[in-house]
Design a protein that fits this description.
It is built from eight helices and eleven strands. The chain has 271 residues and is α/β, with parallel strands linked by helices. It has a single domain, classed as Rossmann fold (3-Layer(aba) Sandwich). The chain is globular and about 50 Å long.
Length: 271
């Protein structure tokens, strides 16, 4: 089967029991990928991808295509000087939505810039992405080329991947620690948070990064104020904390993942 073939409705189609295959990107990098149709196939799929379990897991959620260029530039140092080096140092597996946009793009670029080897797993709905070296399709997104692994899951809408991200994180982590980090974000990131909370996965919100992150920050600081149901669920969960600076974020991540006493230099977010 040609894994790049498109059905008449212009959606990628794959058999229910797909084998692992390699994706080759224009920048010369490659990634292992697999299509998963059912939740009970996930453990075998992770085994086929060679993803080690149990392992500490960082779930990254936040702004995608609506993250502005200026915001992305402002956040670049956070990824290259803190998140990617720390993921390497602590042996994390990082999981995100896998597309070439927003925080997922920043994570991939940081991993490449640091020449890191930690697994970076993108999980995306089949109906919303196209594969590398195939013709771009309107309304579909490219996959980020610096990820090491991809799971392509059923779905024709953004957010369909959210429960898969949460479940994959729990499967890989096992009895190891896992945490969700929110940077910026919008409506889909809120769905991601709800899924993490359903798994009782602690959440750290990076304040000052805009949109959903700042809405949740305001709600946590003033829980008596009126707020939407979705944000109220996050606030009432009791497992969300705020980080204002990269130093605070590093301390929160090290504390959660039980790092040793080593400390790498960190950069402060520009004012």
């Amino acid at each position: 089967m040609d894994i790049g073939s498109l059905a008449s409705q212009r959606l990628l189609t794959m058999p229910s029991n797909s084998a692992c295959f390699e994706l080759s990107f224009a920048n010369g990098s490659s990634a292992q990928a697999i299509c998963v149709q059912t939740a009970d196939a996930m453990p075998k799929a992770l085994e086929q991808l060679g993803l080690y379990r149990p392992a500490p897991v960082l779930v990254l959620v936040g702004g995608a295509s609506h993250l502005s260029r200026l915001e992305a530039q402002r956040l670049t140092g956070l990824f290259t000087h803190l998140l990617a080096p720390l993921a390497e140092e602590l042996g994390m597996t990082v999981i995100d939505g896998g597309t070439d946009a927003g925080v997922m793009q920043l994570m991939g670029m940081a991993r490449a810039a640091c020449r890191a080897t930690f697994p970076l797993v993108g999980i995306a709905p089949l109906g919303k992405v196209y594969l590398p070296n195939h013709r771009p399709i309107a309304q579909l997104q490219a996959l980020e080329p610096n990820h090491s692994h991809f799971l392509l899951v059923p779905g024709q809408h953004w957010g369909d991947e959210s429960p898969w991200i949460a479940e994959t994180a729990s499967l890989i982590a096992g009895n190891a620690p896992s945490l969700t980090l929110l940077i910026n974000g919008g409506s889909i990131a809120l769905v991601d948070l709800h899924e993490s909370i359903a798994h009782r996965r602690p959440v750290v919100v990076m304040t000052g990064t805009g949109r959903l992150a700042d809405e949740i920050t305001a709600a946590l600081r003033n829980p008596e104020a009126e707020m939407g149901t979705g944000i109220s669920l996050v606030v009432r969960s009791g497992i969300v904390e705020l980080s204002k600076t990269t130093t605070q974020l590093r301390n929160a991540l090290c504390r959660h993942f039980q790092s040793d006493s080593r400390r790498a230099p960190v950069a402060q977010l520009p004012a």
